[in-house]
């Protein structure tokens, strides 16, 4: 296939590109390098079937031109990370709403299949164990910046649904749940690379709140093949599909596991949400997916345990070998 990947230099985008290239596909990658890192594309840049374009999804003409000839558009470009959404709320909303609208229109115009990276944030404060794709969203006040990310992604999903029904857009929505692995930076808030870096540096691990909040972490190497399989599965058309692990862990436990896996003697330090994110922050107490649909559609079944995930991140941050090409097969 010929694929356009937006958010090419980001964490998931760059792993997706490596996998697409390994499968023999032709790939164009678009990224504005705002939070992405060109170094993530080091392997891809050696491949003649890959072309990198620096630019924003807010540039309608550019997105339109790059989509011409693509069979599939993987739209991963977005403002992400709790600190980004806090510090650049307006820019984040614009990128995540208008940028996505540009990508949708271009995909529709050029008859490309759109694979849209939505988010598990969509479910907000719904604490159901085993969130299903048609479960309710429980979002906090619009006055709290945290919910602007889920809000924007929900607008995107609604637009895609409407284009699918009214304009025959070919599209699949995916909702990744706390995807982690090498190349993810902790700079914008993501907890696993933050804890691992802190542990390896002998710094305190910063647990926000009381640490009882629950998440399920899934390795990027489990998520990427499912993205590719969903792109070409006719039964996935017009659906929203959860992708994540169901192994629950509290953030307090996560900190202990990171210490155990890395052999670090760092202390664990609790920090209030107010100190961590500023006033008025709201967290979700638990976020656990039901991934039955992804299992039925593309045989999705995560292989990496939490300890293996932590180990792969620690190897990369610690400068030890981690070979994405091997892991992704
Ligand atoms: N978190 C933490 N310490 C950190 C960074 C994050 O305790 O240094 C917490 C955060 O408040 C949240 C969880 O870890 O409860 C997961 O945060 P992340 O930003 O990785 O993903 P989220 O699930 O919030 O989208």
Automatic annotation (TrEMBL):
Residues 3-244 form the NAD-dependent epimerase/dehydratase domain. Pfam families: Epimerase. Keywords: Decarboxylase, Lyase, NAD. Its cofactor is NAD(+). Gene3D superfamilies: NAD(P)-binding Rossmann-like Domain. InterPro entries: Epimerase_deHydtase, NAD(P)-bd_dom_sf, UXS-like. It comes from the Bacteria. PANTHER family: UDP-GLUCURONIC ACID DECARBOXYLASE 1, UDP-GLUCURONIC ACID DECARBOXYLASE-RELATED. This is NAD-dependent epimerase/dehydratase family protein. It comes from Amycolatopsis acididurans.
């Amino acid at each position: 296939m010929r694929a356009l990947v937006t958010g090419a230099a980001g964490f998931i985008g760059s792993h997706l590109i490596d996998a697409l290239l390994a499968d023999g596909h032709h790939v164009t990658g678009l990224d504005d390098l705002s939070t992405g890192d060109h170094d993530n594309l080091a392997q891809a840049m050696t491949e003649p079937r890959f072309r990198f374009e620096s630019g924003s999804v807010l540039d309608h003409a550019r997105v339109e031109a790059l989509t011409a000839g693509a069979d599939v558009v993987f739209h991963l470009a977005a403002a992400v990370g709790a600190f980004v959404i806090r510090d650049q709320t307006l820019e984040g909303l614009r990128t995540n709403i208008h940028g996505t609208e540009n990508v949708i229109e271009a995909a529709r115009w050029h008859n490309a299949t759109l694979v849209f990276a939505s988010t598990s944030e969509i479910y907000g404060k719904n604490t159901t164990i085993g969130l299903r794709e048609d479960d309710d969203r429980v979002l906090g006040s619009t006055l709290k910046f945290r919910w602007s990310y889920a809000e924007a992604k929900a607008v995107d999903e609604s637009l895609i649904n409407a284009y699918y029904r009214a304009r025959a857009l070919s599209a699949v929505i995916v909702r990744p749940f706390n995807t982690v692995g090498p190349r993810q930076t902790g700079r914008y808030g993501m907890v696993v690379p933050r804890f691992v870096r802190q542990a390896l540096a002998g710094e305190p691990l910063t647990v926000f709140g009381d640490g009882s909040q629950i998440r399920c972490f899934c390795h990027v190497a489990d998520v990427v093949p499912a993205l590719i399989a969903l792109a070409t599965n006719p039964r996935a058309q017009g659906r929203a599909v959860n992708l994540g692990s169901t192994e629950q862990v509290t953030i307090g436990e996560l900190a202990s596991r990171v210490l155990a896996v890395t052999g670090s003697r760092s202390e664990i330090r609790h920090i209030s949400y107010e100190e961590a994110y500023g006033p008025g922050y709201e967290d979700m107490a638990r976020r656990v997916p039901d991934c039955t649909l992804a299992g039925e559609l593309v045989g999705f079944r995560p292989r990496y345990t939490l300890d293996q995930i932590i180990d792969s991140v620690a190897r990369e941050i610690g400068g030890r070998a981690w070979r994405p090409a091997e892991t992704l097969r």
